[in-house]
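Request: Show me your protein:
***
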Amino acid sequence: MHNQEFDSLPTTSDSKSNSAVPREHDQVSHLTSKLSLWQQYSLLPYQHPLRFLGLCLQVLLYYLGYAYLQELLFTLKGFSETAWFLTCYQFLIYSVLSFSQIGFVGLSQRRASYRSYIILAIMTLGTMGLSNYSVGYLNYPTQVMFKCCKLIPVLIGGIIIQKKTFNRYDVAAAICMSIGLIFFTLADSKVQPNFNTYGVFIICSALAADAIIGNYQEKIMKLHNVPNVEMVFYSFMFGFLMVFFGLLLTNNLFSSVAFWNQHPGQTYGYSLIFSVFGYFGIDIVLTLIKEYGALICVTVTTCRKAITIILSFLLFSKPFIFDYVWSGLIVIFGIYLNVYSRNQAAFNAKIKFFTNYLFGYRWISNISQGTSSRVLPV
């Protein structure tokens, strides 16, 4: 009996280890309680569901706000005449924010040449400037749909600039996007009394510049190992200077400033929030790609664009026909064909998992072995 009681008593070492565990737990919980909610969110591991949900919500917040404010700005009568001043203002905000981020990160030495960044700034100006300018001529959902189809000029630009070859899925995706765009634009021309083919030309020019910029950015990053924030800062800084002096030379700077001064809240105020949303949206998308891959990122951004188009019809009065729906679905199918061509193993694994989960089929396992990516001589 005495031995049993003795054995049941904790030894000195056991009591120390047992007391150390709750003490350590108390210290961790005490430190965690001192952190703000944002700091606790930042400390979450990459694959944590709350972190993924937070990134998705930020993508929706920033880009839906960006799209809403962009369309809202162009509802102001006469604002379309100052579209290039909006680009100038936007580039200035992007430059200030990226310069602040460079100081925060601690980058001190430029890696690529000024010549490379000037060329990049010209193409960035073409992409964003023409995209802003096209809103004054196009129905906003049509403009968003065109921006979904970057693959078409990227494919052409990759062939011309980098001598790339593309597989059958990329080519099929480009064909689907082209067909969807054609029918979406035709639907727009049916219901929009002020439909302007000049707007289609402008947005196509913006997409062409976007194709060149994507390939050129990739070339610079591989050659000089340039961080994203440095590329953003120099391209937007030089772009701001180009638009500013361009507005001076064309006598549009002072007239644009005069118009904005008449409506300071609707112009300077909304444009500031619009620019901040756009800048942080870029950063969140890059984070989403880095942590979860292109497949998940495209799914999130495609949902965001679909919600953007739906909200555009709901919040801003415009006619609607069913042709918008099925032509838009063709474009979305093309987007996922493009993603599939780059993530076949991940796609096939998910198809196998969900099919086995829902139906218990085993024949789908043949697909999971992957299909050969035949390269077409385009």
Summary: Strands lie at 166-167, 375-376.
